[in-house]
Amino acid sequence: MANMIVRTIEFIGALIERPVMALGRVFLLFFSVVKNIPKPPFEIRNTIRQMLEIGVNSLPVVLITAVFTGMVLALQSYTGFKRFGAEGLVGSVVALSMTRELGPVLAALIVTGRAGAAMAAELGTMRVTEQIDALETLATNPVKYLVVPRFLSGMIMLPALTVITDIVGILGGYFVTVILLGVSSKKYMTATWSYLELQDIYIGLIKACFFGAAFTLISCYKGFYTKGGAEGVGRATTGAVVYSSMTILISDYFLSALMF
Amino acid sequence: MIEFHEVHKSFGGKHVLQGVNLQVEKGESLVIIGGSGSGKSVLLKHIIGLLHPDLGQVLINSKDLSALNEEHLNEMRKKFGMLFQSSALFDSMQVWENVGFGLKRHTSLSDKEIREIAVRKLKMVGLAGIESVMPSELSGGMRKRVGLARAIAMEPELLLYDEPTTGLDPIMADAINDLIKKMNEKLNVTSVTITHDMKSAFKIADTIAMLYNGVIIEKGSPDSIKKSQNPIVRQFVEGRAEGPIVIEGIEA
Ligand SMILES: Nc1ncnc2c1ncn2[C@@H]1O[C@H](COP(=O)(O)OP(=O)(O)O)[C@@H](O)[C@H]1O
Ligand SMILES: [Mg+2]
């Protein structure tokens, strides 16, 4: 009996040991990043390059996703609202859903799939080909040189992409509601503005900022601690996307609840 | 200048270094020989603080590397140059940016000046006209020489070479041996070279040490190594498959 309890505890321990250790190392990486941000030299060139990488490369996919999400939101809410004569509120639904929820989450998931995967693959390759070791021998802190610029770019660019997602989503909603379904333009715009508060926008932007920090940190962590050659790089890349996406979706709920 | 005291290092269950004791004097050229997988690269990485011992100490100029903080370690590394066995070139940068990486980060030289220095260092390793090429376009032997140029670019006091001539044709290998020798003859340059190539070992070494089963089994001048009575050293130096060194999986 006692034996079984011990074995059960051992089993649970073994089960949670790795995730707990990984979480601990993510936090250590986070502290190391924070510690290195204010130290010169500032990696301005690297940061700008990463900002372009995140912002420009993800923009087309973000635009297409945003416009169609806005369109389908308008279409669905119009169908529902017409039943009790509230078509005039479609604009509010689109604006609130985009700014508070869909803008940051969609942008974050898309950027994770592109830039997060790329970060894990690049850093993972650098790890297994000893380029990260080489940086150290050249008296260069690899966290400062590689991770800090990616982290900062994520925190800056994701809110920027979120603003674009919001605007394009609202325009997509406008297109469906006004041009396809024939609601008056004035009605849509009034509905958009009258219920939208500044708070809705900045809650969305705070979320985006957090998601940007989370996905870059997780992706860099996965890449930075890659083991086992090309196969390891593949595993790191997949892991980066899976864990970042999960973190974004789960933390989204808690952030929303917190800033309700 | 470099001292190993009873250094142990394991990876997983594998006990790679099992109490290494070793001393390298300032200005000395030490060559480490030993079979593939015997832990030579692991040993070299301890000298520059990429790996830290599980047990024992590595002292550089009487300072324990594991006890240094990051700033001090980096100050020290600025005076070190390392050539990796895999070259470890930055594949997102052109060749000259690779060679000039340390200069770019730790000096106030302009890009133009750095490029000029890089071109000069590349010439020293027998490479010309490739400064704007990306590393992925180079052959293995060329990558190795770019790695060598990067290692010597900051004119370090301590040079660590991990198999500098592996993958080079015999003529180029000899030219690289000459270059290593020339670097060593400069005042105060200390070097540790890993090689399988006994010809280059005898050419560049002041001292040769053999790593076997996780310890240094013999250390001495090239002449004493040539005349060694230790059957393991003899087998390695003469390059014979038969002898006390067993090759797992290959039937005698
Ligand atoms: N970072 C590492 N993680 C796990 N094992 C390692 C690591 N570095 C080296 N090893 C293992 O240590 C042993 C010695 O490797 P190495 O020093 O590269 O040998 P060599 O003498 O050929 O240079 C090998 O069995 C290798 O698998
Ligand atoms: Mg090796």
What labels would you give this structure?
heterodimer; A: 260 residues; mainly alpha; 87% helix; 0% strand; globular; B: 252 residues; alpha/beta; Rossmann fold; four-stranded antiparallel beta sheet; binds adenosine-5'-diphosphate; binds magnesium ion
Would you kindly provide a written description of the structure presented here, covering whatever features stand out?
The complex is a heterodimer of chains A (260) and B (252). Chain A is mostly helical. Chain A is built from 8 helices and no strands. Chain A has one domain. Chain A is globular and about 65 Å long. A 6-stranded mixed sheet of chain B has the order 6-7-8-3-9-10, with helices on both faces. In chain B, strands 2-1-4-5 form a 4-stranded antiparallel sheet, with helices on one face. The chains are: A mainly alpha (260), B alpha/beta (252). The complex binds adenosine-5'-diphosphate and magnesium ion. The site of adenosine-5'-diphosphate has 11 residues of chain B, from strand 2 and helix 1. Adenosine-5'-diphosphate binds next to strand 2 and helix 1 of chain B.
Describe, in short, the structure shown.
The complex is a heterodimer of chains A (260) and B (252). Chain A has 260 residues and is mostly helical.
End-to-end distance of chain A, in Å? 48 Å
| Total DSSP E strands of chain A | 0
CATH class of the domain at 1-75 and 188-252 in chain B: Alpha Beta
How big is the Rg of chain B? 18 Å
Taken as a percent bin, the fraction of beta residues of chain B is 15-25%
Point out poorly predicted stretches of chain A. Answer: none
The side-by-side strand order for the widest beta sheet of chain B comes to: 6-7-8-3-9-10
SSE-based structural type of chain B: alpha/beta
Note the gap between the termini of chain B: 42 Å
Rg from Cα of chain A: 22 Å
Number of folding domains of chain A?
Answer: 1
Helicity level of chain A: over 70%
Oligomer: heterodimer
